[in-house]
Amino acid sequence: MKRNAFITSILTLLATPGWTIPIRRIQVALDSGFKVSAGEGRKHGHLKLKGVNANVLDVKISGSDTRIDLAVFEQTSLSQGRGTPLHVHPLQDEIFYVIQGTYRFKVGEERFTLGAGETIFLPRQVPHAWIQDSATGKMLVILQPAGMLEDFFVSMAGLDHEPTAEEVKRLFAQNEMQVVGPPLEPLQKSF
């Protein structure tokens, strides 16, 4: 009888809305280096994101390449006036290196504008957001440790619709991030 009560308890817990079991990819140690050519992604091909922006993301170094120690992404930005909501990575530091274009960042209470050749460091547990100001742009995004951001990008690219703000918030939470505020406002155009 105790066994049946235990199984019933587990099934009840699994059926509870909002309760999930985090699933991690099995990490394989690489024993050699690799090259990723310009304009290519090492895994997943070109991820065409939906939701917070409609950018194209290439995984250059996957968390599965580094035992989840590091991930590197190249983002081709096609969404002027769009960016991320204010959010927190509780376990990861994030670095952005702007290759082309102009972006604005909010990190804690500080605000920064970055152009080509500039880098910004976003420490873990500090709320941050960014927005693309230029018509197009490109950034290198580095996350250490890798965490689940790659899974977030794959999920966003796999959607068959533009997600609602609530769906975006849920996808953030499922991938080790927390939305804590709205996105940055676009610059006002002067005529």
Radius of gyration: 18 Å
Question: Which term fits the overall shape?
Answer: globular
Mean pLDDT across every amino acid position: 86
- Taking pLDDT < 50 over at least 5 consecutive residues as the criterion, the unreliable ranges are 18-26
What is the string of helix and strand elements?
A: HEEEEEEEEEEHHE
Defining traits:
single chain; 191 residues; alpha+beta; 6-stranded antiparallel β-sheet; 3-stranded antiparallel β-sheet; 11 strands; 34% strand
Describe the structure.
There is one protein chain. It is globular and about 65 Å long. With 191 residues, the protein is an alpha+beta fold. It has helices at 2-15, 149-158, 165-174, and strands spanning 43-48, 56-61, 71-77, 85-88, 93-100, 103-107, 110-114, 119-122, 128-132, 137-144, 178-183. The chain has a 6-stranded antiparallel beta sheet with strand order 1-2-3-10-5-8, covered by helices on one side. The chain has a 3-stranded antiparallel beta sheet with strand order 7-6-9, with no helix packed on it.
Short synopsis of the structure:
The protein has 191 residues and is of the alpha+beta class. The chain is 18% helix and 34% strand.
